[in-house]
Amino acid sequence: MTQALTSKFYQKKREALLQQMPEQSVAIVAAGKEVVKSLDENYRFYVNNNFFYLTGLSEPEGILALIKTQSQSKCTLFIRKPDPFKEKWFGRYMTIEKAHEKSGIEDIRYLEAFEHFIDQCKTLDYFEDDTIPDHQKQDYGFKEKHPLSPWLSQLRLIKSDEEIALIRHAIHITHLGIDQILAHLRPGDYEYQAQNVFESTIFDHGAEETAFDTIAVSGEDAPILHYMTNRKKMRDQTMILFDLGARYHGYCSDISRTFPVGGHFTKEQRALYEAVLQAQEKIIPYYQSGRNMKEVQEISKKWLGYYGSETGLFDPNKTIDDYYYHGIGHSLGLDTHDLCGENRRIDLQPGMVITCEPGLYMADRGMGVRIEDDILITEEGPVVLSKEIPKKVDEIESMMD
Q: Which of 35-49, 280-294, 322-336 has the lowest mean pLDDT?
């Protein structure tokens, strides 16, 4: 089984960030805090992925400080002090020894020491982790704040071999879940039952959670991109669109597939499905090092417009923007929509993992199709990491018989 990242990985990422920082500066990256759900319950904690990327730790309240001066570059980590009373209710806190073993950081202190520490840094330029939600940001008293996101975006965009291996395994687990969907999909069941088949399978195979809330949208609701209800009964002669993925050791997969609920596509459904599939086959070769994603977006509109028109299903008074109204792809990593800079208008480089997700949506006909795969950019060209997941019509129908 693919192994979790080691302390050497996190050490290298901290060193790379420190190299970018100017002298006489400090950067603060916090894990985030738990959010209260009710009187005696918190929402499930989800660590700030920048903190996780630099430490490998996923407990709440941790704070990482990176300092660069003329004489030294160093990292200091602050964690919660063990609390025997709370640990009886919520589990053991991370110890300094365990935090060192996981992160490789030598200077680890309890949070009580942070206030005095940060007061000693007020003469330094301050770089803020500007990607976290406003409700999680803290004011440490610096007059000026500089963003960390340009450096962190560039670091996180290019995946190491170890990260790619984890993404591959997350995709493999997702594949297992999709195969089970195909084996169990039946008219008369509810969307949430198909969701449960997928999620129980990926958890059985080591996923720590879903990469995002599973979308299982059938029939006329398929043109709703972020449909989250998953409560409708699935009818025969309709399709169901899945947008789903497993998360493994922090890293995400992101796959979309569209299947016929009854096991066979109707004539119109097959025409629309194959239009999207043919367009994707034309688009993926453009995922080349040096191309800009804005250019790939325009290429995707061209091919979806061409193959969609060939079906005869398009209204001649409408344009491709009426049938395709989202981006062709995004960076994938610790976040499903991974940190990647402004507007996702990135130049592709080796080591990036980018989704390719063309779709056509016809609200007037109650149909929507999206096919999404995860693509690794290499010097030799695009590599489809999810190529084993079924998407050809005959393959899908044979697996559902």
A: 35-49
Q: Is 243 a catalytic residue?
A: yes
Q: Is 135 an active-site residue?
A: no
Q: Which residues pair with 248 in a beta bridge?
A: 251
Q: At what angle do helices 191-204 and 161-184 cross, to 10 degrees?
A: 140
- Rounded CA gap, 19 and 67, in Å? 11
Closest CA to 80 of 103, 104, 63: 63
pLDDT at 1: 63
Tell me, what amino acid is at 94? Answer: M
Residue 38: partners with Cβ closer than 8 Å, 6 or more residues away: none
Catalytic residue among 191, 357, 373, 374: 357
Which residue is catalytic, options 112, 226, 310, 395?
226
Cβ atoms 109, 94 nearer than 8 A: no
Residue type, 161: D
User: Residue 381, SS3?
Assistant: strand
The span from the CA of 241 to the CA of 224, in Å, is 10
Beta carbons of 56 and 103 less than 8 angstroms apart: yes
Q: Give the tens place of pLDDT for each residue, 189-222.
A: 999 999 999 999 999 999 999 999 999 999 999 9
Q: Is the model's pTM score more than 0.90?
A: yes
Question: Exposure pattern of 360-393 as b/e (b: 16+ CB <10 Å)?
Answer: bbbeeeebbbbbbbbbbbeeeebebbbeebbbeb
Among 330, 335, 373, 374, the active-site one is 330
**Residue 258: Cβ within 10 Å count:** 27
Active site residue 40: yes
Q: Which residue do the tokens 């998953």 mark? A: 230
Residue 292 · residue 262 · CB < 8 Å: no
Contact 387, 366 (CB under 8 A): no
Strands 251-252 and 359-362: unpaired
How far apart are alpha carbons 93 and 189 in whole angstroms?
43
Question: Does 61 qualify as catalytic in the annotation?
Answer: no
Is 361 marked active-site?
Answer: yes
pLDDT on residue 342: 59
Can you tell me whether residue 41 is helix, strand or coil? strand
- Active-site annotation holds for 370: yes
51 contacts 29 by C-beta, under 8 angstroms: yes
User: DSSP for 164-175?
Assistant: HHHHHHHHHHHH
**What is the β-pairing status of strands 209-210 and 107-110?**
unpaired
For 295-307, how does the pLDDT look when each residue is reduced to its tens digit (9 = 90+)? 999 999 999 999 9
pLDDT digit string, tens, across residues 157-178 = 999 999 999 999 999 999 999 9
